[in-house]
Specification:
With 596 residues, this protein is an alpha+beta fold. The chain is 25% helix and 25% strand. The protein has an 11-stranded mixed sheet with strand order 11-12-8-7-1-2-3-6-4-19-20, with helices on both faces. Strands 5, 14, 15, 16, 17 and 18 form a 6-stranded antiparallel sheet that branches. A hairpin with a 5-residue loop joins strand 19 (428-430) and strand 20. Helix 3 (66-82) crosses helix 4 (95-108). The radius of gyration is 25 Å and the shape is globular.
């Protein structure tokens, strides 16, 4: 592998996408907003791979993120003028196809960009050979590659590098490793870049988006996208362009650090980052320093994302208003199930008691009863189900209504993680001149193990307690990983931490979140962040695409937990959390015009 001269100054890497569908103007905003060395984009998630897989079924030339191509057509010339190199995983299932499409854009615009891509992650043709189709033949099967193919492309002079399924952090690790000429076994430096990459890869989630204490941020109308200034030792400063909305604080960065992780070890194909070593400090307005990250050799296996079409689903949501909610729900359930000619393989009922007694609006007097059906036969959950739901209209409970007419059903998929020995996964850098370079897996590996809980601060007896929402002192961030969810909870002071780590146990979590009862829950303690992180296995069924839960990606799970009441020492509860001034409410005319 060719190494460029070692750089001394930090490399400034901005990110302009956290998912496929993120703000399309963000690439231009980031390029025009200030200086950058690299601009990255994360377009892939477990659900995205399914979407791209279905695109590829319709047209084999597709399978990549089309929005990235639109952004490149708008901004490629600007990036070249500003000397900003672009790295993105928008290639999805077809990185070579996206690279060819970019070259067509480049030629049509009369530009001179050099374009490279990374491939090898797509294992679908070898699924049976690798034992990846034991239950259902997968639609997509992609290994999570690391950063060294990106490094090879950048060292060869590429202005744009597009990849398939690399880890989210790899699009940031690659530019940093290329910039500083890091070696494959510079594990502490690589770990620092992985941590910085994890913070900024979800875009504005690092600058105030999905943030528990959002009311403290003066301007969240249009959060700016984050930037990582990564130093040669792997430490970094997280910031954003001046004049953009949102905020970068120790707490907004903590929130993103806790997103979709497990415990003290965070595995990537190039390094396992020790999240329990990370230290955050305030570096001034909109600047947070990340230091102390240590790294270990990566695991000997690569994770593989499998998406398989599992059948067809449909649902109907009944509105139950006023009195006798339980009796109304029982009636419509008995009627629908007895009227169906064929019973679906899965039939689930969920009653959301959103109704209030003596309500002053009809909406707040109503509850929602949802029936979800799944079957391998589309006819069972299609018109045969929809028709029965509609036929009940004049024959069921008083006030019968549906939120919307049921559809005729749609396919759904399930996500399954798998693992394959790294040596069985090709990793190929295709350079701007077409030369193909094979990237070997890490020469050093270490099996992944849980980190033992660190020593805890001594518990303290508190004189007075008050029963209030957990959110009175704690923030949270939650998300999905396949059928599992994580909920990270943190506090701001050492005394709050002393209380939290002893109070918020697995047993207490199960009390506060009854849905969790009976599932396998593990708790991980992260003292440097004053945080505990819970991993809840199976709460999301078979993944987001199966739509097994009201909140299929567990995005609101942390906020539900914060709303639940718990006994907290009075001395730890702030008298009043600072809030920004509320914006003036929109008028009826503005709402009707769609200004909301």
């Amino acid at each position: 592998m060719t190494h460029l001269p070692i750089a001394r100054e930090p490399v400034r890497i901005g990110n302009c996408s956290g998912f496929y569908g993120d703000r399309i103007s963000a690439m231009r905003e980031m390029l025009e907003g200030g200086d950058l060395d690299y601009l990255t984009g994360d377009y892939l998630a477990e659900l995205t791979m399914l979407i791209l897989g279905r695109d590829r079924m319709k047209d084999p030339s597709r399978g990549y993120a089309k929005t990235f191509l639109r952004q490149a057509e708008d901004c490629l010339g600007l990036a070249l003028d500003r000397g900003v190199r672009i790295v993105a995983n928008a290639g999805g299932l077809n990185p070579s196809g996206l690279a060819d499409a970019l070259r067509e854009v480049n030629d049509r615009l009369g530009l001179n960009a050099t374009i490279a891509h990374v491939e090898g992650d797509d294992l679908i043709a070898r699924a049976a050979e690798l034992g990846l189709d034991s239950e259902t033949a997968p639609l997509t099967a992609n290994a999570y590659l690391g950063a060294w193919g990106i490094v090879e492309c950048l060292n060869a002079g590429a202005d744009v590098v597009v990849t398939g399924r690399v880890t989210d952090a790899s699009v940031i690790v690659g530019p940093a490793a290329a910039h500083f000429g890091w070696a494959r076994d510079d594990f502490d430096k690589l770990a620092g870049a992985v941590v910085a990459g994890h913070v900024i890869e979800c875009g504005t989630q690092a600058t105030g988006g999905n943030y528990s204490w959002f009311t403290e941020i003066p301007d969240l109308s249009r959060p700016g996208f984050p930037i990582a200034e990564i130093a040669g030792d792997g430490s970094s400063v997280i910031t954003k362009h001046a004049g953009t909305g949102g905020a970068v604080t120790v707490d907004t960065v903590t929130a993103q650090l806790l997103y979709e992780i497990t415990g003290g070890r965070y595995a990537n194909p190039d390094v396992t980052a020790r999240m329990d070593s990370v230290v955050l400090s305030d570096g001034g307005p909109d600047r947070v320093r990340i230091s102390g990250a240590t790294g270990e050799a990566p695991p000997p296996q690569y994770k593989v994302s499998l998406n398989a079409l599992a059948g067809f689903r449909n649902e109907a949501t009944f509105v139950l208003t006023g009195l006798d909610i339980e009796a109304k729900a029982k009636l419509v359930r008995q009627q629908l199930e007895s009227w169906l000619q064929a019973k679906p393989q899965e039939l689930e009922w969920t009653l959301a008691r959103t109704d209030h007694p003596d309500a002053d609006t009809e909406e707040t007097a109503s509850a929602l009863l949802r029936c979800t059906v799944r079957d391998t036969d589309p006819n069972v959950v299609g018109r045969a189900f929809s028709s029965v739901a509609v036929e009940l209209a004049l024959a069921s409970y008083p006030g019968f209504t549906l939120t919307a007419p049921p559809s005729h059903g749609q396919p759904y998929a399930v996500f399954t993680p798998a693992f394959v020995d790294a040596g069985q996964v090709p990793h190929v850098a295709v350079l701007p001149d077409g030369v193909r370079v094979d990237i070997a897996p890490s020469a050093q590996t270490r099996a992944l193990e849980d980190v033992p809980d660190p020593p805890l601060p001594d518990p303290r007896d508190w004189d007075d307690t008050v029963t209030v929402p957990l959110g009175a002192v704690a923030a949270a961030r939650s998300g999905d990983k396949g059928g599992n969810a994580n909920v990270g909870v943190w506090v701001r002071t050492d005394e709050q931490w002393r209380w939290l780590v002893h109070a918020l146990t697995v047993d207490e979590l199960e009390r506060m979140l009854p849905e969790v009862k009976g599932l396998n829950v593990t708790r991980h303690v992260l003292p440097h962040l004053r945080a505990v992180n819970f991993v809840i296995e199976g709460i999301l069924g078979r993944g987001v695409a199966s739509q097994a839960r009201f909140d299929p990606q567990a995005k609101g799970l942390g906020e539900w937990l914060r709303s639940r009441h718990i006994e907290i020492p009075v001395a730890l509860v702030p008298r009043q959390r600072p809030r920004v001034a509320p914006q003036a409410p929109l008028s009826t005319d503005e709402l009707q015009e769609g200004h909301a």
